[in-house]
Amino acid sequence: MRILARQLTTYLSRGRGYPQNKLITTRIFSSFAPKDEIALEAEVERKVGWMLKAFYVASATFVGYQFFPYMGDNLLHQSISLMHVKDPLFKRMGASRISRFAVDDERRMRVVEMGGDKDLVEMLKFAKDDKTRKSALKALSALSNSEEAAGALHQAGAISVIKSTPVSLEDAALNTYKIKLLQRFQDLKYDDAQPDLS
């Protein structure tokens, strides 16, 4: 950094038309002591460091604001695409991402617009293990917190699929999601949503 400060001083002094040897002469007869020069160089280093950090933060902020809005849709699209894979692990990963994405009405409706509600219903319908059923029910539960999304789930046939989901003897959370979803549909006055507690 001291080298950079010296080069900067040399460059600036040339720009003003001072000859190089005059700069050296003024340094010799200057009132600055070597300690003062070291302190000045340290201060310049500190200021240049802060300028570089500020530039880096500003650049990172700009890039973040340019790219992160697109990551939401891309991530959602990838999550919905994961539910089309035959492997139950990938289906569970897609459903888990959707349940974390669907935190407000706007995002829930975005999932519905991209067809995630129908894919979740199909995933639940053809699930062969409790882990996959639980992930699907959790995502459906997250979507059903919006009345519009719950209406779309009703139109996709979610109520009959949820009712036909077998009761799990091993996983109580699966049963809890099932009862909560049926209760939600009943609260929204969908006629065929009587909870089956057997």
TrEMBL record:
UniProt xrefs under SUPFAM superfamilies: ARM repeat (SSF48371)
Name of the featured protein = Uncharacterized protein
Q: What organism is recorded for this protein?
A: Papaver atlanticum
